[in-house]
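User: Predict the complex.
Assistant: Input components as received:
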Amino acid sequence: MDEKLINSEEDAILFDPILKTGRTFYYTLFILAAVILWGVWAYLYQYRNGLGVTGLARPIFWGVYITNFVFFIGISHAGTLISAILRLAKAEWRRSITRSAEVITVLVLFFGVGNILMDLGRPDRMLNIIRYSQFESPLLWDVSSITVYLTASSVYLFLPLIPDIALLRDHAGKWQWFYRILALGWKGTEKQHHLLERAIAFMAILVIPVAISVHTVVSFVFAMTIQPMWHSAIFGPYFVAGAIFSGIAGLIVAMNVIRKVYHLEDYLRPVHFNNLGTLLLVMTLLWFYFTFTEYITTYYGAEPIHMTIFWLKFTGRFAPYFWGMFLFCFVIPLPILSLKRTRTPAGTLIASISVIIGMWLERFVIVVPTLTNPRLPNDQIIYLPTWVEWSILAGCVAFFILLYMIFTKIFPIVSIWEVREGREKSMAEVQERIKTYLPGIGIE
Amino acid sequence: MHRWGMVIDLDKCTACQACVVACQAENNVAIIGPEESAKGRTIHWMELIPYIEGEYPHIKARLLPRPCMHCDHPPCTKVCPVYATYINEEGLVGQINYRCIGCRYCTTACPYTVKYFNWYPPEWPQEMKGSLNRDVSIRTKGVVEKCTFCSHRLLRARERAKAEGRDLLPDEYIPACVQACPSGAMYFGDLNDPHSVVSTLSRERRAFKLLEDLGTEPKVIYLSEGM
């Protein structure tokens, strides 16, 4: 009934995905659902028959699932962390991108955790982790840290959603009861705004150390063992940098898609991609720096047990993975992101897809080669992931896209009130702020 | 307090693998077919590993029987999230199969790769099912297992000693591998007792431990050959 009212309003296009659902949506939904069902079937097959249906064996006890775990948790660093940093830095261009970033974090975390659970030999006993918690185990640090992170980033996603939910409650036709509950009685009074802003600022600060702790303890799962090329002090920061790196790439891909699908060219402008592209460039260089440091110290130390794995990666069996990682993480994105001419939506999209593939390979190259060469002599086992593992990975990716898609159908993917606030207040605010930086004016 | 340890004299060891077979039978270790075995899914609590040092032509090869090292500082127990692997006060590193969630963190953390995972439900040929050891629980699919120094034999021996109202005698508790060794290359006993055979041998000049520099303090001590 109120649809007309919304359409005549400003930012009407932001309500469109919620009000109208085209045929393409259902086609995509159908394809994704098919892939997910295939993945579910693969998992059920594994559940029935045991982990023998994977390519894993002794001594390569960990493979694609653990790679996925590290990879998905890494992608989650896009959202909350980037959004929190941009908010705290008062970067005005953040307004239309924060929401799409925060959603990634919350949704992708489930797949990180899910992959660990699917890797368990006895998933039916997973509650033993709570019943018999052994806090000396880095896995428990992961459990604690990720739980806090999931909670904090859900709250951090929800808080800036409240005013937008209230908008939907007041205008949109369907599901009013749903929006009414979630809006928590938001009226948009001065007091409420003040409270909300303080809460958001608080969460933004809280969420940064939590996010950093998450990927640090993920790296500790490897670094705390004494296995060659895992037992490294650099792993914490290396993993955090890699996580932010792949996270930004994930965000750029997501933004490209919603921009095209929902015609948000006016909201997600080339400048956003340019700025995120610059950020991605910084992370590309940082990633190279960490990778270089990691391998040069190993090489210079030249301990035989480390060198075996070093050469496995550089010239041996894992060379295609290693150099593939280098190509996708560095060689391809670097020139694209360095030139302003190619730092466009399309250019950053290519660089980001490359980074995402490269970062998955990076995790694989960290997990598998170390395990193939244990200290004591062992049979040479070649790990080739089976269709079960690939299907589950495909299922996870499809499920993530599906959830993201559904989110955009229920909530505005661009924060409406923040964009409006930007228009109404920030212009003056920014001018005032700049005045305080400059000598000679503004101070009485 | 006892501190159980094993000594393996490589001068006496003929690499006949009787220990491997004895262990397999004693501990209900599943039989894995040749196909799965080629993929690296075999389970051997006790295994003979080819240990090659140096490079051709100055090469030195030896075959080492390798049970669990029962380290004093085990890297595996630290990482288990559910206390499914632990070290007890007598130095035995145990494995609780019915608590294990199968995350395989201990298997990756063990520098000796002595831990094995049940990729499938364990199976035996029909004829062998009747001869399974009733003192050792059957594992399920998806859990980790490893050498326990036949700790069920210690329980048995303790019970017997208690029933007869006396202390445990030094020779009463011996793992199956040690018992089966035809050349008498393996010794087992209390490392805390300064007069026990293992304790004396462990202080011999030939004594060495695997990957000693890692600081895991293994309680399996080898006596090097050819000296």
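Confidence is low (pLDDT under 50) at residues 1-5 of chain A.
Let me know if you want any component modeled separately.
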